[in-house]
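Input set for joint prediction.
Command: fold jointly, output tokens.
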Amino acid sequence: MIRRVLSIVVVILTALLLQSTVFSQIRLLGVKPELMYLVTIVVAILEGPQEGAVVGFAGGMAQDFMLNTPGKGLTALTLTLLGYTMGLARQYIVSASPLLPTALVAAGTAAGTAFYQLVATLLGEFDEPLGYAIKVSLLAGLYGAVLTPIFYPLIRRLFEGSRPKRVVRY
Amino acid sequence: MAVRPRPRATRLLVVSLVAISLAVITLDYRGGQDGPLAGLGRSTLSIVVPMQRAVVTVTRPVGNFFSGLAHLPSLEQRNRDLDNEVRDLQAQIQGNAFDRQQYEDLYGLVQLKSSLDPEGVAALVTGNGVSNFEWTVTIDKGSDAGITPDMPVVTGTPDGAMLVGRIARVSSNASLVQLLIDRSFSVAGLLSGTRANGLVQGKGDEDLEMGLVDKGTPIAGNESVFTQGYCVADQPGLYPPGLLIGQVSRTVPAGSDIQESVSVRPAADFSTLEFVLVLKARTDCS
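tokens >
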């Protein structure tokens, strides 16, 4: 259990640090990747809706408190729902394709960022032009898809090692 | 295979997490910068910024080293010892160039500090904002160094200071700087040629927009735009006069009969920002 909590903390901190240092310089047509979305979706695919929601909530909160704009908690709300939805969706998709995580990260990140922008607009905290909002959703999805083959095996290895062992009684 | 939790328990957990998120959003709106969540924000900054500092200390010289290696001519035909020697020397040269560049940047900043504001605080930029929708950087100095919110942040050489932004949030050992290009940033600007004034606003990755300029003002291309100092009821504006904001890049077609806008290209290069100076001195209104 402690190892599991530690895995979650390590994944979230690493994503937050990489997002704010290395990947803020390596942009795709001016758009940064959304590593916290990627991490949430990958964990949801690997571990199911409950873990997805927990990692999404914790990662979203950590990211929210690094922001300047009011309305902290919005990324946490978005990622909790995204983690849960992606974890549920994974249970109903019967496909052994190695490209499945990539496709889910692309679609999930695009949908998640669009949801974030929509709620931020309703709260009156979003003043970006529509063109920029659409560009960010699509490119963040594409960037996430490109990064998934790198991050997916790393996260899988970390979480597989921390899974609780099954107790077998004779 | 992981032991799957029951769906009902999972749903309950998700509903709880969503409820907490909504409560946090509400609390943050009501409390603002001084609310009950401000402490959590400060703690996050205090924890993350030292780690960012460690990351950039490693990644900046390494990135420089690898970019240097990428430009090395092919040495495949040479003998292995000579090859290694060249690599070592190249790495050393790159290291020296990196150190010299840092030295020059810092020296310029020290000169600027003594000419502009001897009380100012020089700080290292440790990271950029995490979101695609706000333009911020984090620096490694905070309230322990006497920094408070709304202080102006500049960079540049002794020849001229360029406005970078303002301090948005402060923790004991770190601060969050809202950049000039952030969409919710605005500053009073002054055109250097005509002395006409207007309001300069951030537009994200696009050029800044200087609005509220009187219609018919003759504006030259590449004209510099500086901050304008002002006093209202003996209270000074946030930014001292004479900090370079940028150069006029084009005139925006008029949307009104009495005012017009111009696009302003920011003078500071935000993608390579490494050291900044936080100004403490306030304009004297007396």
